[in-house]
């Protein structure tokens, strides 16, 4: 995977539940577009609210009371109509400026075990609605793994990955968490584990507890997401920290100044030396800062009966063949938006040690940018000679093939990875 | 199998919270009805109970597009009438995939679900979020006697709100 020419014929897209990462093959940085259509609630005068598609959300004046419509549920595209509207926006002159689809090749990432209905719907969108020439789809976890490998080409000082090209990819994204062991470039499908908790569930949980305890925030999803990203962190010693937050004044507590929509649209964290003014509305975040990300580790907190991430990693790895387990524990790769929580990596390291036999080495890696890691892997895959060769032989469906065999050929080819 | 279906129900509810509440509510009913009817379809399979016919017209309208393929000519017409919820949600799609017919060794969306944790769930005070040792008769967990007056002052709906947060509501809506 040496060559890195930007190939404008291949559009690489990591179509995630929270944001869609898109760019051309061989590029280093994608454009990140929120994968959502947000509609402002109709105002009192009966005026229909404005709809913000994808990146137009940035221009939104007022983030409160937005109604979100997302095409993706648990990582799978269920609502093709919304997805088409969003892709139209992404391919428009404002973002990617692509018009000649008949000449282009689209490279999408997919989640494991995508239902056949969704695969064929997507094939219809790609070939019939947009009319792409070729369509490639590769497992998102494999792309993330590849992205991590390609990162070392840029940064030779980083830890070299083990020679067997094996890793456990823990993709904790917006609407799900998937744990995928990869052995010698091959995805171990039987050992994939999924946890139905992602960033969205965490934001909703924070929104609900804040609404029950302090202010009604049920309409303020955007704001709560901002607060979550700014204030929540993974506790390294949860029991100890829970004892700290018992006290009225403690070092974990932070005050968040809520937006007044004049000076600030999203609010900010109160600095210690700045006194409060009479107009400031303050949301104090105490145990919420740690209990919200804790849900990733103990989903039972919100009534889910699935295991937390460290336990699920152990379940996943121990279901692989015994000879692989050593190398897999030695390379745990964390990607996805939830990886951005402070201390997330350390906590996984710490928890894994509790579950895993001393004979196994545990090494946890975190790519420099866990959100776009998957896209970078896809981009470098599609931009390299070896990747292109693999793509054309097994992973790509051309429009001609589609017209000949229908969407079955997509189902067949894309279920291999 | 039945137990897993329950889980999906709960999850989709969780997701729906993201969308607008007031608008969501009006669909909640019909949504759960469609869920029920699809579940029934999957469960009994051979014969639909006659009860289904007796359901309200609203339900029939909602289930109709499910049985058609994606290219149903009615699709766009219906859409203009009732713009929302025309796509199937993930749970409906999964039901249609007939994963139960596959041998259990084949990995599918359903059986890659992480099994339950080996550790007992932690208990938190519903009011403050701190550790909790006590449970009030109405099901609310509380941290200490300081919180208890608040617990007793809650009305029934509020209690359900709190319990719903950790999905342990007892009465079904």
How are the SSEs ordered, and which strands pair?
The complex is a heterodimer of chains A (417) and B (173).
Chain A: E1 7-15, E2 19-25, E3 31-34, E4 37-40, E5 51-53, E6 66-69, E7 72-73, E8 76-77, H1 80-91, E9 105-110, H2 116-130, E10 134-139, H3 140-154, E11 167-172, E12 177-183, E13 186-187, E14 193-195, H4 199-213, H5 221-231, H6 238-244, E15 254-257, E16 268-269, E17 282-285, H7 288-294, H8 309-318, H9 322-329, E18 332-335, H10 344-355, E19 364-365, H11 373-383, H12 385-395, E20 396-398, H13 399-405, H14 408-414
Parallel strand pairs in A: 1-9, 9-10, 11-18, 18-19
Antiparallel strand pairs in A: 1-2, 2-3, 4-5, 4-6, 7-8, 10-20, 11-12, 12-13, 12-14, 15-16, 15-17
Helix pairs in contact in A: 2-14, 3-11, 4-5, 8-10, 11-12
Chain B: H1 2-16, H2 21-44, H3 57-67, H4 74-81, H5 90-96, E1 134-135, E2 141-142, H6 148-153, H7 156-165
Antiparallel strand pairs in B: 1-2
Helix pairs in contact in B: 2-3, 2-5
What can you see in these coordinates?
The complex is a heterodimer of chains A (417) and B (173). Chain A has 417 residues and is of the alpha+beta class. Chain A has 14 helices and 20 strands. Chain A has a six-stranded mixed beta sheet, sandwiched between helices. The longest helix of chain A is centred in the N-terminal third of the chain and has 15 residues, at 116-130. Chain A is globular, with a radius of gyration of 22 Å. The mean pLDDT of chain A is 85. Chain B has 173 residues and is mainly α. Chain B contains seven helices and two strands. A two-stranded antiparallel ribbon of chain B has the order 1-2.
């Amino acid at each position: 995977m040496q060559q890195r020419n930007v190939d404008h014929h291949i559009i690489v897209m990591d179509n995630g539940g929270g944001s869609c990462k898109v760019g051309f093959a061989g590029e280093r940085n994608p454009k990140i577009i929120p994968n959502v259509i947000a509609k402002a609630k109709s105002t009192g005068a009966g005026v229909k609210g404005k709809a913000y598609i994808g990146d137009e959300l940035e221009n939104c004046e007022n983030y409160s009371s937005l109604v979100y419509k997302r095409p993706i549920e648990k990582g799978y595209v269920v609502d093709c109509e919304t997805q088409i509207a969003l892709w139209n926006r992404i391919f428009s002159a404002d973002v990617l400026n692509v018009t000649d689809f008949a000449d282009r090749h689209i490279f999408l990432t997919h989640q494991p075990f995508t239902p056949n209905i969704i695969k064929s719907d997507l094939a219809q969108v790609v070939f019939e609605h947009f009319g792409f020439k070729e369509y490639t789809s590769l497992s998102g976890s494999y792309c993330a793994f590849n992205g991590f490998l390609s990162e070392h080409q840029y940064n030779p000082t980083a830890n070299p990955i083990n020679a067997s090209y094996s890793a456990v990819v823990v993709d904790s994204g917006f609407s799900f968490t998937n744990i995928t062991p990869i052995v010698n470039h091959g995805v171990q499908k039987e050992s994939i584990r999924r946890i139905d908790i992602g960033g969205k569930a965490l934001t909703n949980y924070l929104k609900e507890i804040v609404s029950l305890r302090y202010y009604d925030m049920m309409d303020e999803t955007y704001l709560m997401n901002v607060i979550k990203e700014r204030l929540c962190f993974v506790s390294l010693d949860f029991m100890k920290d829970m004892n700290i937050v018992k006290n009225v004044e403690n070092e974990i507590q932070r005050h968040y100044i809520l937006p007044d929509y004049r000076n600030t649209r999203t609010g900010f964290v109160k600095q210690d030396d700045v006194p409060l003014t009479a107009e400031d509305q303050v949301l104090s975040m105490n145990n919420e800062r740690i209990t919200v990300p804790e849900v990733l580790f103990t989903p039972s907190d919100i009534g889910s009966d699935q295991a937390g991430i460290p336990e699920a990693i152990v379940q996943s790895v121990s279901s692989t063949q015994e000879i692989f387990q050593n190398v897999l524990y030695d390379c745990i790769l964390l990607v996805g938006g939830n990886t951005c929580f402070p201390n997330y990596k350390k906590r996984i390291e710490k928890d894994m040690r509790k579950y895993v036999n001393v004979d196994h080495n545990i090494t946890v890696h975190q790519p420099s940018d866990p959100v776009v890691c998957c896209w970078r892997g896809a981009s470098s895959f599609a931009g390299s000679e070896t990747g292109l060769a693999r793509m054309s032989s097994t992973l790509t469906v051309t429009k001609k093939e589609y017209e000949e065999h229908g969407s079955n050929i997509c189902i067949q080819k894309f279920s291999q990875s | 199998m039945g137990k897993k279906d329950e889980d999906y129900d709960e999850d989709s509810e969780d997701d729906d919270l993201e969308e607008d509440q007031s608008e969501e509510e009006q669909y909640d009913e019909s949504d759960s009805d469609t869920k029920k009817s699809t579940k029934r379809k999957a469960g009994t399979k051979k014969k639909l109970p006659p009860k289904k016919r007796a359901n309200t017209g609203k339900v029939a309208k909602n289930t109709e597009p499910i049985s058609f393929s994606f290219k149903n000519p009615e699709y766009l017409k219906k859409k203009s009438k009732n713009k929302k919820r025309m796509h199937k949600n993930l749970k409906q799609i999964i039901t249609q995939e007939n994963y139960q017919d596959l041998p259990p060794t084949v990995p599918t969306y359903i059986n890659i679900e992480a099994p339950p944790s080996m550790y007992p769930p932690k208990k938190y005070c519903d009011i403050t979020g701190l550790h909790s040792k006590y449970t009030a008769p109405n099901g609310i967990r509380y941290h200490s006697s300081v919180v208890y007056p608040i617990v007793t002052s809650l009305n029934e709906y509020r209690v359900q709100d709190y319990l719903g947060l950790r999905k342990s509501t007892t009465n079904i809506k």
